[in-house]
Amino acid sequence: MTLTTAERIQRLADLAVGLGANLQPGQVLGVSGTFGQEQLVRAIAEAGYRRGARYVDAVYFDYHIKHARLKYAAAETLDFVPPWLGDRLLALEKIGSARIALTGPTVPGLFDDLDPARSGKDQLPFVKEIIEVIDRRTINWTVIPCPGTAWAQLVYPDLAPDAALETLWQAVEHVCRLDTPDPIVAWRDRATQLDRAATALTELRLDHLRFVGPGTDLTVGLLPSTAWMAARERTIDGIEHLANLPTEEVFATPDPERTEGIVRSTKPLLNSGAIIRDLVVRFERGRAVQIDASSGAEVLRGRAALDDGAARLGEVALVDRESRIGKLDTVFYDTLLDENAASHIALGGGFPFGVDEGDKARVNRSAIHIDFMIGADDVEVTGVTQDGRQVPLLRGGSWQI
């Protein structure tokens, strides 16, 4: 089946509205993107209204204005987050809305002329209320990729712009299962597979994980009641939604005080406009005490110093080699895609809904949540159960459970 770009946009919008966010008739639909993503935002709005949206609230972030702030504003003001940005999300939460966010770099390289230490202080467009709303499970939401020419040329620099964009669209079409007769059915099947993997991991009652590979020897402790989850979630009102499209991970909330060792990132990370390459992080008693990289280290150091929880882990996730994204063997410079190609960990806020009531107070709290990839075929992942038994989890990138 060969799709035109217009057909891809329509199928992606329908998938995001109908399965990802699972918009219910009468709900308000919030859509967030950046300038350069208008075509997909408009297609989502059309799909939303066809499905019965009461109103579609589209918001665009302008990275050029962020660039002006980082270049000229006083340093002590760069961590200021206007409260009305979070209030908008809380207002959507109050009326029981749905939400779709678009990813994909639209202006790569824009911040290359800036001091990375300054860039690390400004976390926008991310606001802390995003984590709070996710934790409360009051909004049915999803995140989807939005291909564009600038992003395509970053991923495929040796191709002409049109060819690069077509190649990126082909990749997104494949990883989002738009190339199947019914993408919604295909995703429901895949979500069931991921749920089974999460259940199997939970039933092991793991105390900690160990990642061992080139440049990596990392132990990540888990909380006593940690449950493994996949991206198929339910709101407190029972609305099922698929939080990421695409999604290939199973994830858990770690003990923020029990991460030890050193870890090497296996993929570059694009954050705050900077590409962080060859990242190496050393942890002691749960904290990232050393962050080094061949480029972009100052950006991540700045983000990890934002608050008390920013240097601790809020998530650990496992991804097997059967991931459609991983099989493409491509660095997409987009966390949504890259984190679903390889196992990863995240600095910052954790997920209290992933533990029992008695452990909720121990979950890491932070205004940031930054995933970086640490998995590869040559990184072995072993689980150690609460009674001390060692269980191989991933070998050669394949599940052993």
Topology:
Blueprint: H1 5-20, E1 28-34, H2 38-50, E2 55-61, H3 63-72, H4 83-94, E3 98-103, H5 116-119, H6 129-136, E4 140-145, H7 149-155, H8 161-175, H9 183-203, E5 206-213, E6 216-222, E7 232-234, E8 240-242, E9 250-252, E10 254-264, E11 269-271, E12 274-276, E13 280-284, E14 287-292, H10 297-304, E15 313-318, H11 324-327, H12 335-338, E16 344-348, E17 369-373, E18 380-385, E19 390-395, E20 398-399
Parallel strand pairs: 1-2, 1-3, 3-4
Antiparallel strand pairs: 5-6, 5-18, 6-10, 7-8, 9-15, 10-13, 11-12, 13-14, 15-16, 16-17, 18-19, 19-20
Helix pairs in contact: 1-2, 7-8
Individual helix count: 12
The order of strands across the largest sheet is 14-13-10-6-5-18-19-20
* Principal-axes shape call: globular
Write down the overall mean pLDDT: 95
Q: Cα-atom Rg, whole angstroms? A: 20 Å
Strand-pairing-aware structural class: alpha+beta
Q: Indicate how many domains the architecture comprises.
A: 2
Alpha carbon gap, first and last residue:
35 Å
Helicity, as a percent range: 25-40%
Q: What is the number of beta strands?
A: 20
Write structural notes for this entry.
- The chain has 12 helices and 20 strands.
- The protein has 2 domains: 5-183, Thermophilic metalloprotease (M29) (Thermophilic metalloprotease-like); 198-231 and 238-399, no CATH class.
- The chain has 401 residues and is of the alpha+beta class.
- 30% of the residues lie in helices and 27% in strands.
- The strands form 5 sheets. It has an 8-stranded antiparallel β-sheet with strand order 14-13-10-6-5-18-19-20. Strands 2-1-3-4 form a 4-stranded parallel β-sheet. A 4-stranded antiparallel β-sheet has the order 9-15-16-17.
